[in-house]
Design a protein that fits this description.
Elements: H1 7-11, E1 13-18, H2 27-34, E2 44-46, E3 49-50, H3 51-59, E4 68-73, H4 77-80, E5 92-95, H5 101-115, E6 120-125, E7 128-130, H6 133-149, E8 154-159, E9 169-174, E10 185-193, H7 197-205, E11 209-218, H8 219-229, H9 231-243, H10 249-257, H11 265-268, E12 277-281, E13 287-289, H12 293-301
Parallel strand pairs: 1-4, 1-6, 4-5, 8-12
Antiparallel strand pairs: 2-3, 6-11, 7-13, 8-11, 9-10, 9-11, 10-12
Length: 318
């Protein structure tokens, strides 16, 4: 039986890899592995591949290579210079500095919009471990299908918790089972950003989910939410939109970044937009955010790295 997915539907999918963070919490490990100050996304932590390269490989399972944008920070240029050989310049959104997830996401969205105004976009942080990339990307595809049916919504991928982790963000779904059957997608009641352990235990009992920060939506929907919640910054970026792809773009971006302060996308946009959000509970995939040394150690102890990092375990600062 033929796959009903058309080239047109697949070609409207875009992926943005968020790779502009400084990786400060994992520096004790990345210094040992690489011998320099590179952030974790440019470090060969798993299977002798950088975390960013693993993210790009994962994205390519469902997203055409020509539809990928990599969000980067210019101060890390020495560590991502190799990408210039495999990623065309229009697909690299290079920030002058890391000022949080909101400016990085807005700049990347404006770049996608210039290339495809009808794009559906999925965001992928580049510091995740996933036990089954194919199974995960199949669920990302379900999120793409849902936002095509309901273009005013953004779908967040939530992970069932294994323990009451206080270092993650949590999503509280608003569940309305139809005929007693669990729904694939739920509305979002509330966000909980890095709650204390007692609160995390209560959230786990209530059926709340870890926020993977993988999210899917139409480019125009993302931009509308940012315009509504962060109107000043949105307007400051408008001159950038006019010069994307021209020699004036770099100066325009640098001018904007001199005016703004760090902003967290979850706090500023998602928490203020719950009526526009749906959450899809990830099934049959183990997910870990590798931003904390303790989580890397847990992978080492479980033997989930194919390359030998065991010699580093006793030298990682917690």
């Amino acid at each position: 039986m033929k796959n009903h997915e058309t080239n047109e539907s697949k070609n409207s999918r875009w992926g943005i890899a968020l790779a502009g963070g400084d990786g400060t919490r994992l520096k004790s490990l990345t210094r040992l592995i690489s011998g320099d100050e590179r952030p974790k996304q440019f470090c060969r932590v798993i299977d002798n591949m950088t975390l960013l390269d693993r993210t790009i490989k994962r994205m390519s399972l469902s997203i055409p290579k020509g539809n990928m944008v990599i969000s980067l920070t210019r101060t890390h240029e020495a560590y991502y210079d190799y990408l210039n050989k495999i990623i065309p310049a229009p697909q690299m959104a290079v920030q002058p500095a890391n000022l949080g997830t909101a400016p990085a996401i807005l700049y990347s969205l404006l770049r996608v919009e210039c290339m495809d105004q009808n794009a559906s976009v999925a965001f992928f942080p580049s510091d995740h471990y996933l036990s089954d990339d194919e199974a995960f990307m199949a669920q990302v595809k379900s999120a793409f299908d849902r936002v095509n049916l309901e273009p005013g919504k953004i779908v967040l991928l939530g992970v069932p918790p294994d323990y009451p982790e206080s270092g993650y963000g949590w999503i509280e779904p608003l569940r309305h089972p139809a005929n007693g059957r669990p729904q694939l997608f739920s509305s979002v009641k509330k966000f909980w950003e890095k709650p204390d352990r007692r609160t995390a235990s209560e959230l786990m009992k209530k059926g709340c989910l870890w926020n993977s920060f993988v999210m899917v939506g139409h480019v125009r929907t993302f931009l509308k939410l940012i315009h509504r919640t962060l109107p000043t910054i949105y307007d400051q970026f408008l001159p950038v939109k006019e010069v994307i792809g021209t020699p004036y773009e770099r100066n325009a971006v640098e001018s904007v970044y001199k005016k703004i302060t760090p902003i967290n996308f979850s706090h500023a946009v998602l928490e203020e937009s719950t009526k526009n959000l749906l959450v899809l509970e990830v099934k049959n995939v183990e997910w870990i955010d590798l931003g904390d040394p303790r989580r890397v150690l847990s992978l080492l102890e479980d033997g989930l790295f194919e390359n030998d990092l065991s010699s580093y375990a006793g030298r990682i600062s917690l």
